[in-house]
Specification:
This is Alginate lyase 2 domain-containing protein. Keywords: Signal. The protein is built from two helices and 17 strands. By secondary structure, the protein is mainly beta. It has a single domain, classed as Jelly Rolls. A hairpin with a 2-residue loop joins strand 3 and strand 4. The longest helix has 31 residues. The radius of gyration is 22 Å and the shape is globular. The N terminus is likely disordered.
Length: 286
C-alpha cells in the first residue's frame, strides 16, 4: 500500500466516524427537541402559572386555601433541582376533600391524535391520596367536576376504599371497573408500592381517537425505584375516565385529606419535568 492510498483510507474512515457521531448527536437532539414543555419548575414564578382551587373545603374551623402546592428545591449531585409538591393540607389538617391544581396544555390534543406525556413523580410519604392526568374540560368544568374532569388518570394512594379494599401504594390506572394497579411483566404480579423518596419516570401514551376507532385509552410505562431499574410497559389500554371524545386541554392534579371522621393522610406527591410529544415516544425529553 502506498502512502497516498493509506492517507485516503484514513481520511475516508475519519469522515465516516465523524458522520456517525454527527448522526448520533442529531438523533439525540431530535428526540429532545420535539418534546413540548408543560413545566419543569425551574423558573421561580412557575408555581404561579398553576390554578389552585379547593372546591370541597370542609376544614373546621375553616381554613381558607388549605392545599399546599408549591415549588421546592433539592440537592442532586451538588446542584439544585426544583420541583412541585402537592399536599391537600398541612400535616394534621383534615377536611380538604378536593384540592385541585391545573394548567392549560401548551398544545391541545385534538380528537384522533396520539400524544405521549412524560412526568416524574416522587412520593413524599404515605398515607396519601393523589391523582393526576389530563382533562378535556375548561377551568369551570374542572372545578365543577373534580375527579370526573379527568380522562387519562394515574393514581397514588394507600387508602382503604369504602368497600373495605385496601390500596397498596402502587401506581394505579383507570379502568372501566374502577382502578387497577400497574403490572410488573417480569414477575407476573402487580407492581410493588412506590418507594417514598425515589423519583419515577412515567410515560403515558394517550390515544384520543373516538372509542369506535379504538381510542379513549392509554398505555403506561415506568422506570424508577428498585423494582423498575429499566423502563417497562406496565399497563395496556387503560381507559379514559369519562370518554367524552373531546380535545384534551389541561394537565390536572388532585389530592384529598379524606373525610374529617376518617382521614386518609396528608402525604405529598412531588412532580417534575412535565412534557408532551406527538405520537408514541418512549425516549426522555432531555
Amino acid at each position: 500500500m502506498t502512502s497516498t492510498m493509506a492517507i485516503r483510507i484514513y481520511s475516508i474512515r475519519t469522515k465516516a466516524c465523524l458522520l456517525g457521531m454527527f448522526f448520533l448527536l442529531s438523533t439525540t437532539s431530535s428526540h429532545a427537541s420535539q418534546w413540548i414543555l408543560i413545566d419543569n419548575f425551574e423558573t421561580p414564578s412557575s408555581a404561579n402559572n398553576w390554578v389552585k382551587a379547593d372546591t370541597k373545603n370542609e376544614t373546621s374551623p375553616l381554613i381558607q386555601n388549605p392545599q399546599i402546592s408549591e415549588r421546592r428545591s433539592e440537592q442532586v449531585a451538588g446542584s439544585s433541582n426544583f420541583y412541585f409538591i402537592k399536599k391537600p393540607a398541612a400535616d394534621g389538617i383534615v377536611g380538604n376533600r378536593k384540592a385541585l391544581t391545573y394548567k392549560a396544555l401548551p398544545k391541545i390534543v385534538e380528537v384522533g391524535d396520539i400524544y405521549t406525556f412524560y412526568t416524574r413523580i416522587n412520593v413524599e410519604y404515605f398515607p396519601n391520596n393523589h391523582a393526576f392526568g389530563v382533562s378535556n374540560l375548561g377551568p369551570k368544568g374542572i372545578e365543577q367536576n373534580d375527579y370526573n374532569a379527568f380522562e387519562p388518570t394515574l393514581r397514588v394512594t394507600d387508602k382503604t376504599e369504602s368497600n373495605g379494599d385496601k390500596n397498596t401504594g402502587a401506581l394505579m390506572v383507570k379502568t372501566q371497573n374502577g382502578y387497577a394497579n400497574i403490572h410488573n411483566e417480569v414477575t407476573g404480579q402487580d407492581a410493588k408500592p412506590l418507594e417514598p423518596g425515589s423519583w419515577y419516570e412515567v410515560w403515558y401514551v394517550v390515544n384520543n381517537a373516538p372509542q369506535r376507532d379504538g381510542g379513549q385509552t392509554y398505555d403506561v410505562y415506568i422506570k424508577g425505584g428498585n423494582e423498575f431499574i429499566q423502563q417497562q410497559k406496565v399497563y395496556s389500554a387503560a381507559t379514559f375516565r369519562m370518554a367524552r371524545e373531546l380535545p384534551l386541554t389541561h394537565f390536572l392534579m388532585n389530592c384529598n385529606t379524606g373525610p374529617v371522621d376518617k382521614p386518609y393522610g396528608n402525604g405529598g406527591l412531588k412532580y417534575d419535568d412535565l412534557y408532551m410529544i406527538e405520537g408514541r415516544n418512549l425516549h426522555t425529553p432531555f
